[in-house]
Amino acid sequence: MKEHVHYFDHLRLMAAISVIYMHVAAGPLRLPICTDWQIINVFTCIGFTAVPLFFMMSGYLLLSNQKTENIDILFKKRIPKLVIPLMGWTIVALLWFFLFDKSPANFFEKLIASFKTPAYVHFWYVYTLVALYIISPLLCAALRTLNKKAHILIFIIAIIPSVQYILQVFLPPSFDRFIDFDIISKLTFLDGHLNTFILGYYIGALKKKIPNSILIISGGLLIALISFGTYYLTAKNGFFDQNFQVKSQGF
Questions:
Q1: Mean pLDDT, residues 56-74 taken together
Q2: What's the distance, Cα to Cα, between the start and end of the chain in Å?
Q3: How far is CA 117 from CA 114, 123, 124, 136, in A?
Q4: How many CA atoms lie within 13 A of 169 on its CB side?
Q5: N or C: less crowded end of the chain, CB within 10 Å?
Q6: CA–CA distance, 18 with 47 (Å, rounded to integer)
Q7: Quick check: 113 pLDDT over 90?
Q8: Per residue in 144-172, is it b (16+ CB within 10 Å) or e — as a string?
Q9: Could you give the CA distance from residue 83 to residue 106 in angstroms, rounded to a whole number?
Q10: pLDDT digits (tens, 9 = 90+) for 119-160
């Protein structure tokens, strides 16, 4: 049995609180810039690590576990653990909507439509996670059998869309013709979340651990960069600009 990663419990709690905070902060961040706005912006930039954290933890836990290759475990245990709660909360959300809308037709229409798209935008994460779970046996088997050069190639494929995005944010639009390659955009699988999923596996599989001091300094600098970048673009463009706050690529 795979050893339980205890600090993941703390990360999950922090990420869950961050998701709630991001949704609550969305309104105030669309108001004029002031001192409160600056503080909320910093905490929101920290909170944007929530979704990547969830995907990276799932990526490491699934892709480093040989049981992931077992299709019976996938469809008898793992998929139901996602789909059943999703169905339950979808019905609860639609019933809540029905209490205000008073239209049975809309309830059933939205319920049927939820088989294709999320009934509410907040449920997108589970739909994406189900897709990742479905392809996880293939990914797990492939990663376990690849040689070192192939792993390097997969790692490059996973990060190169983020590198492209960072360059596009920093460089003037006139430079797009040098860096905006369609083939790189096509490497952004599942809106970039597959890339994050795979990166989680590689980060977790690192043999040589990075010192906490370096991680803390790097994290602090990145938070400062993302916070200032968000402030700068918002002040410049006159609306809340989130080009520095992206859940699936870039920063």
A1: 95
A2: 35
A3: 5, 9, 8, 21
A4: 21
A5: N
A6: 5
A7: no
A8: eeeeeeeeeebeeebbbbbebbbebeeee
A9: 22
A10: 888 899 999 999 999 999 999 999 999 999 999 999 999 999
Q: Return d(Cα 65, Cα 73) in angstroms, integer.
A: 12
By the 8 A CB rule, do 153 and 77 touch? Answer: no
Q: What is the DSSP string of 205-243?
A: T-SSPPPHHHHHHHHHHHHHHHHHHHHHHHHHHSS---T
pLDDT in tens, 159-202: 999 999 999 998 888 898 888 899 998 888 999 999 999 999 99
Measured distance CA(40)–CA(29) in Å, rounded: 7
4/10 Cα distance (integer angstroms): 13
What is the rounded distance in angstroms from the CA atom of residue 228 to the CA atom of residue 65? 40
CB 157 within 8 A of CB 165: no
Instruction: Identify which has the larger pLDDT, 220 or 104.
Output: 220
Domain borders along the chain are 6-237
174: enclosing H helix or E strand: none
Q: pLDDT for 6-63, tens place per residue?
A: 999 999 999 999 999 999 999 999 999 999 999 999 999 999 999 999 999 999 999 9
Burial class for 220, CB neighbours closer than 10 Å (0-12, 13-18, 19+) = exposed
